[in-house]
Amino acid sequence: MTTKNSKNYAPKFAPSKLNVLTTPNALRELESRLTEAENFVSLCPELQNLLQTNLIAMRRELAGFQQLAQLAEARVIDAQEQLEIVMLDKEVVGKRAELTDTELEDVRARVAIPEVENNVLKEGSVEISLLFWRKTNLLATYRGNAVGDSPAKDSLADIQLEKQND
Description:
Blueprint: H1 4-9, H2 15-22, H3 24-143, H4 151-165
């Protein structure tokens, strides 16, 4: 039964293409492709589940790495803040050291004045002792007793003079 309408709906193949599709090699190739497609379709849910599982695991890893990155960033910020504090402390210590040096110079200057006065007084006392010794010697000479006549007095005067000279 061939009607005009059925001819319009029939596929139009060129005779050369029809021969290629009907050869045994072409049929086997088409059958193998069909088998591969069926295998792929049957493996699709398994592959999808595997991909979903891997995706979930990777998302967990990513979340873990993000937490580690945030922790590292917080530690860096803490370290920077501590560094700022240490730098401020260093600056304060430097200023205190300068003030201490200034105070030390002031104290040395204040101590130098009494030391100079003490040295002047020592020199003055040595001079006074010499004057006293000369006066005593003159008095002894005047009275007729030379200083050399009294060995105990000479040694005491000599000892005092030596101490004062030192």
